[in-house]
Design a protein that fits this description.
The complex is a heterodimer of chains A (about 400) and B (about 290).
Chain A lengths: L10 H20 L3 H9 L2 H17 L16 H24 L8 H15 L10 H23 L4 H21 L31 H23 L2 H11 L1 H6 L4 H27 L9 H14 L4 H17 L7 H15 L15 H19 L17
Helix pairs in contact in A: 4-8, 4-11, 4-12, 4-13, 5-6, 5-7, 5-11, 6-11, 8-11, 9-11, 12-13, 13-14
Chain B lengths: L1 H8 L10 H7 L12 E12 L2 E12 L3 E5 L6 H8 L7 E6 L2 E2 L5 H7 L1 E3 L12 H10 L6 H5 L3 H21 L14 H14 L4 E5 L7 H16 L3 E5 L3 H7 L2 E6 L2 E6 L1 H6 L1 H8 L8
The chains are: A mainly alpha (about 400), B alpha/beta (about 290).
């Protein structure tokens, strides 16, 4: 490039060469999904919506059809496995806001999951002496409580960066777990039984949202995921999303460009925590039992793995990563002793062949950018046609690797 | 400063080659407290110490509204330190920086930007994973007021600001001449375009004073020529420019006034012609061959 002094090629030839450099670079980056993604971006908006609708419909039908080879049975009940996958996916969507958008490595995310679980349990379980409210009301309460703790954790720690932040959040995760053990009101290993569930009974008098029946829980979680993804998408294509990505890319430059970085980092933490708390409450409701045993560091790392695996920064990727991280151990439970071995191998293979994650597509950060980009693409396409330039620049600088 | 007054009234020759609406969209009405030719920024007795090292020693100078001020000096003279102390990256050991008569001391960096002081970086610092247009819109966001809730629920203000952001962003990209690359990831842009994009992003924050930190570093003579045209065009559009630069031909060709630093002290403050003939400056700086590799 031109910042090296020395003999220069003619300016025109040079800029052409640079253009080629740039293009080949972007092609290499996209890998084998690039043509697919280009085609997706060229589809008109209604067609995209139609496809999404079909995919969502298929997702809702997932627990009903017990597809051979894909199923986790006989080792694990398939609808319940579907629910576990969906709750991991929800967690991954929330953690993706923190890690994927704002670039803050949070290794203690399980703390917010725990806070959500305990909130739901303590407000509904007969073992708890406190105020009891209907289960569905615990979802917003759990979000609020987790959000509060997110802000409490964020304000002192978000002055730290990178590795330091990761270590502090790791500590926070452990603090919450240990508090659950030593505070008597949280009942340690005994825990809370019979956590509430949404209302409704079947004709046979059984509750619809029974602990043994994963399907309705799966549908509820999937609906929540869709709503959260929609809202996360709104944030992404706004000032907030742009600020997060700017912070992730270069925090100092973002601050100098007028982004109140600290404020938006706290917001990222708070929003991530709220989704974590929500998924904790859902999980507590389905399992029906909460004690101090499942909120260890390992689980936190698993959550991070889900986001990284799916492609940090992409919410569809996060859903996929979360589902996969839950699915692999359940699928290979028949050879239980080796399940983490197989899981590890699968992770390594994916990281070798796809270090950018399963769906690395970048964020679209402008709510109304599509028209502007298409206008440029059309303009340069017609310019190219009129000057009769070689057809090596097909759909010129249309937006690169746009996301869902 | 006779030519800076004409910049506001009639269309100056620098703006002749771009559409009028682009020039207008790139420089909207701003409330600036001071008149053209008055001091918009004052640097008062600025001292910056790093441990025992005095990087800036009692430096004072003014920037007048509508001018292009050059800040030059040999390597290590304290140019970038001065820049960083002005823009809030460093806290000055003593002294003060005033923008429109109001002190910037202790003000957070993002607030300084909102007060109207924008800068580019010596080593390019774009947001690589964003397109060129998105980079510019981050700059525009400095003037936006959408809240997190507003964005979450897509309230009317969000819609309004997003729409105007795309329009103004495109106008700014056209202003610096890279509108065709609006959809390209900024890290895939050629070097020269990245420099221009940095300028567009800084302009997007609607600055009263635009600080360019060695914008010509790594440019060949033809590119430097184009950059000079762009800087003049920015001034003609109503901005005040502070330019740090190594390249003497560029500085002499484009600035109205030059401040020379050496070993952290101000050596001279005068017009380009006077600077060229100042024996102290010649001894300190211009005495060396001026075609040093950038």
């Amino acid at each position: 490039m031109s910042f090296v002094d020395g003999p220069k090629i003619l300016p025109d030839a040079e800029s052409d060469r640079e253009k080629l450099d740039v293009e080949s670079q972007s092609k290499r980056k996209g890998g084998w999904t690039q043509p697919l993604r280009d085609r997706w971006n060229l589809l008109p908006r209604p067609v995209q919506w139609l496809w999404l609708l079909i995919v969502v419909g298929m997702a809702y039908l997932l627990p009903v059809f017990n597809i051979p080879l894909l199923t986790t049975e006989p080792g694990n009940d398939w609808p319940l496995a579907c629910f576990t996958m969906s709750s991991f996916a929800l967690i991954a969507v929330g953690l993706n806001v923190v890690i994927g958008y704002a670039g803050l490595l949070d290794l203690g995310y399980v703390a917010f999951f725990a806070i959500g679980s305990y909130t739901a349990a303590m407000l509904t379980s007969p073992d708890s002496p406190y105020l009891h409210i209907p289960y569905l009301w615990t979802l917003p309460v759990a979000m609020g409580v987790a959000m509060f703790f997110g802000v409490v954790l964020g304000i002192p720690t978000l002055r730290l960066r990178g590795d330091y932040l990761a270590i502090v959040t790791l500590g926070f995760g452990e603090i919450v777990r240990i508090l659950a053990t030593i505070i008597p009101a949280l009942k340690g290993q005994v825990g809370f039984q019979n956590v509430g569930h949404p209302p409704g009974v079947t004709a046979a008098g059984q509750p619809i949202f029974a602990n043994s029946n994963g399907t309705p829980w799966y549908w509820m979680t999937l609906t929540i995921i869709l709503i959260v993804m929609l809202l996360a998408g709104n944030l992404e294509r706004s000032r907030v999303g742009r600020s997060w990505i700017a912070i992730r890319e270069d925090e100092d430059a973002a601050e100098i460009m007028g982004v109140p970085t600290f404020k938006y980092k706290v917001w990222a933490f708070a929003i991530g925590a709220a989704v974590g708390g929500l998924s904790g409450a859902v999980f507590a409701g389905q399992v029906g039992f909460v004690n101090n045993q499942k909120f260890d560091v390992q689980t936190s790392i698993l959550f991070v793995a889900a986001v990284v695996l799916g492609g940090a920064g992409n919410k569809v990727g996060a859903v996929l990563g979360g589902a996969l991280v839950a699915y692999i151990p359940l699928r290979f439970t028949a050879i239980a002793d080796y399940k983490y071995f197989i899981f590890g191998i699968a992770l390594i293979i994916i990281m070798i062949f796809r270090p950018q994650g399963l769906i690395p597509a970048r964020q679209r950060l402008l709510a109304y950018g599509r028209n502007a980009y298409q206008k440029i693409a059309r303009k340069s396409a017609s310019n190219g046609a009129s000057t009769g330039s070689p057809p090596d620049t097909p759909a010129p600088p249309a937006q690169e690797g746009a996301a869902l | 400063m006779s030519d800076s007054t004409s910049a506001v009234s009639a269309t100056p020759p620098e703006l002749a080659d771009i559409p009028l609406e682009v020039a207008e969209a790139a420089a909207p009405d701003r409330e600036i407290a001071v008149e053209v030719g008055d001091n918009i920024m004052e640097i008062k007795n600025l001292t910056m110490k790093f441990g025992g090292l005095v990087a800036l020693d009692d430096v004072s100078f003014n920037i007048k509204r509508g001018e292009i001020l050059g800040l030059i000096g040999p390597n290590g003279a304290g140019k970038t330190t001065c820049f960083n102390a002005m823009t809030g990256v460093y806290k000055p050991t003593s002294g003060d920086v005033l923008l429109e008569g109001i002190s910037l001391k202790g003000v957070k960096q993002h607030r300084i930007t909102r007060r109207g002081l924008a800068r580019t970086f010596q080593n390019i610092r774009l947001f690589g994973e964003m397109t060129a247009l998105e980079n510019v819109v981050v700059g525009l966001d400095a003037r936006h007021r959408t809240s997190v809730i507003g964005a979450l629920l897509r309230l009317p203000r969000h819609t309004r600001e997003e729409k105007s952001a795309v329009e103004r962003g495109m106008a700014l990209l056209e202003f610096v001449g890279i509108a065709d690359h609006a959809g390209t990831l900024s890290r895939h842009l050629p070097y020269g375009h990245q420099r221009r994009l940095e300028i567009a992003r800084a302009l997007a924050t609607d600055p009263k004073v635009l600080c360019l930190d060695e914008p010509a570093a790594g440019f060949n003579p033809a590119e430097k020529e184009e950059l000079m045209v762009l800087i003049r065009r920015i001034r003609a559009d109503g901005y005040t420019v502070l330019l740090i630069e190594h390249d003497m031909r560029l500085v002499m060709g484009v600035t109205d006034r030059i401040v020379v630093l050496e070993f952290g002290k101000k050596l001279a403050d005068d017009t380009p012609v006077a600077i060229r003939n100042d024996p102290r400056v010649v001894a300190a700086y211009l005495g060396e061959p001026d075609d040093e590799p950038a």
